[in-house]
Amino acid sequence: SGVIEKKKQQLKELDALAQSIFYEMFGDPITNEKGWEVKKIDDVSLSINYGTSSPANEGGKFKYLRMNNLTYDGFLDLHDIKTIDLLEKDLEKYIVRQDDILFNRTNSKELVGKTALFNLEEDMVIAGYIIRVRVNKDIVLPLYVVRYMNTPFMKQYFANLCKGAVNQANINSKELREVPLPLPPLPLQQAFASKIEAIEKQKELIKQSIKEVETLFNSRMDYYFN
Fold this sequence. Notes:
226 residues, 7 helices
């Protein structure tokens, strides 16, 4: 319906707004025109871990995040989610907690390098095709890193890393550690984060109203046709 189309268009516009705020506040990452100090992901990370290669199981204790649960534009998609049980001793290695950064290290050449912020309160577990990055929040905000990794510049960077790949492209943790990261001052990152959080809240409201419209629309159809 036209109403839903219009709302979906609003979501796209909010995403475009978020990206333009990034460029406005931090400049173009290619030229680094604002002259930020450039670090590597390794310099700002507390830990960088691969996920588990164990298979999912029915009724497992934890939700199990796989590469299809990260979207191309850097968000979580929990529509199709499996579960897994883990041994106590493996828990700390594979668990993801709020503010962890998830990086998709293996995928098709176009999709490798998908990066999303894990911003949920419920702990989950990651599969082997995902790398979990925990950063030192005294230096860098996870949200800033994730939005940087989703700029067209970084999408191109990862595509170039995978030049020779035929089917599956792969970026290992050593290559991820080497990724350059311009480091604006923390207060500027915080100002950016609060703008992005406001946009995300707006998006949630719109998604909610899309659901409501769809529900209404479907019940009306049922009423007329059944």
